[in-house]
Design brief:
single chain; elongated; 0% strand
C-alpha cells in the first residue's frame, strides 16, 4: 500500500490538539485522518518540542542567525556582481579602443 498524501499543517494541528486535550486518543485521531497512529505521536512530539524551543528563544535565535548569514551572503554576491560589472565595462572599453586584432574572429557578441 502506498503512502497517504501529506496532511496540511492545520489538520495536523487540530489532530494534535484533540489528542493533547484528551478529546480523542491518538488511535482515534489516526483513524479519522487516515494516517498511522505513529504519525499522530510524531506530530505531537514535534509540536511539543517546537513549543519548548519557542519558550527558550532557540527557534527565534536560529532563524535570526540564518537571516544574518543570508544577508551577509547577499551582500558578498552584490559586491562580486558589481566588481564583475566594472571589469566587464573596462574590458569593453579596452576592446572598443584597440579594436579586434587582425585575423581574430569571435563567434559571440559582447552584450552592451
Amino acid at each position: 500500500m502506498g503512502r497517504p498524501p501529506a496532511l496540511p499543517a492545520d489538520e495536523k494541528f487540530t489532530l494534535v490538539l484533540g489528542v493533547l486535550t484528551g478529546e480523542e486518543t491518538a488511535a482515534e485521531a489516526a483513524r479519522r485522518a487516515g494516517v498511522s497512529e505513529q504519525s499522530v505521536w510524531n506530530w505531537r512530539r514535534q509540536f511539543i518540542e517546537a513549543g519548548r524551543l519557542g519558550l527558550t528563544g532557540e527557534v527565534i535565535t536560529r532563524d535570526a542567525a540564518r537571516a544574518d548569514e543570508m544577508s551577509k551572503e547577499i551582500s558578498t554576491l552584490k559586491t562580486t556582481i558589481g566588481e564583475l560589472y566594472v571589469e566587464l565595462r573596462r574590458h569593453r572599453e579596452l576592446r572598443r579602443r584597440i579594436g579586434t586584432p587582425d585575423g581574430l574572429r569571435t563567434n559571440h557578441r559582447l552584450v552592451n
